Structures are given as structure tokens and as C-alpha cells.
Amino acid sequence: MGKKLLLIGNHSIHVNNYYHLVKPYFDEVLLITNKSNEKSPIEPVEFVDFSYKKISNFFYTIKKIRSVFREFKPDVVHVHQVNSVALFSILALKSFKVPIVLTAWGSDILLSPKKSFILRQIVKYCLKNADVVTADAEYLGQEVLKYMPSKKSKVVIANFGMELHDELFVEKENIIYSNRLHKPLYNIDEIIRAFKKLEDTGRNTYRLVIAATGEETENLKN
User: Fold this and answer.
1) How many Cβ atoms from other residues are within 10 Å of residue 44's Cβ?
2) pLDDT of res. 163
3) Mind listing the pLDDT tens digit for each residue in 79-90?
4) Is residue 163 part of a domain?
């Protein structure tokens, strides 16, 4: 029997990219997400609502995840983000004997636990009940450890990385490159202000490149 992966995460380019990254290593990959990726649709896929705002999700979402699991019978479950996605998934699946990998993204660890006592307890619960926890940076991994039981104080640092092709190798330039979406979360305005201070020294040899778009694009241009 071939290996099966159940991938669970909110609609995101990160989950989409991860799906295509790991798909060749499994015989079957099934995605559970909250909405379709129109630019690069994934099949097969199941849809659920991960929102905390609907109390009914604590019944319907958990029930749906459990139902999909029983029908698909995966060998491993990989959950993206230590938030409601992880909470619903773990509540649904922790009674089954299947390894659960939980990947932290950033704000779920760096911001959410500081917002309220309840969110902090949710993060701790999810980390405690995952079999393997991964992060894509050493700093994030160290922050994850603050919310994990000491007996399970290990985080796997796993970068997404990128494919390298010979034709992409170019001469190094002095460029500071920002490629995050233009959202308040990413503080791109602070990057611009910091670069201005560098410019004001009169010794700057770097060029700042702001890529991507988003709700803050016009403000950033101003």
C-alpha cells in the first residue's frame, strides 16, 4: 500500500507551494483547506471553515476533518499554522494513531500568544499534542520552544528553499530585497524608514527593492 499524506491548512500560496513540493514523495496527497486556489487549483481537496467566530465549527469542522481522515486513511498528517487550523485538526485527530506534523509560520507564534491568555493556551495545547513541530527559521524555532513542554523541547528547522538553475546565477549586487505582501503585519513601512536613515548617512551603496502588492501599496509609495 502506498504512502498517503493528509495536508491541512488555510488557503495560501505557502500551502500551495508546499503541496507541490511534497507531492512527488507520496502516492496520494489530500488537502483540507478553507477555500479554493483559483490560480493553481489542487485536487483532491476538501473544504472546511477554520474560523473561531462560528461556535458551530467546533462541531461541524471537527466532524468533517474526522470523516475525511477515516475515509482517506493517511499515514501522516501535516498541519500548517499553530492557530485554529491546528486546534480543530488536533481535536479531530489526536485519538487516532497517526503522526501529526505541525508547522509554525511566524505570526502564530510571534504575535498571537501575546494577544490573549486563551490564544496562548491554544498554542501550548497544539504544540503539546503534535508529534513533530517544524519552523522555517532558528529564531522562530527558539520562540516555539517557549510554549512547549520541556520534555518535548525539540523543533525541526525546515526551510522551504528554492530550486536553483545554472542560468539563474548572476553577479552579486548590493540590493536589499523585500518580497512580503503589503500588509501591516509585515512592517514594510519600517523597512523604508530604516533605509532612509541609511541613505542619510551619505555612505549607502545599497538599493532597496520593494516587491509584491497589497492593501498598503499606495501608503508605502507615499
Assistant:
1) 10
2) 67
3) 999 999 999 999
4) no
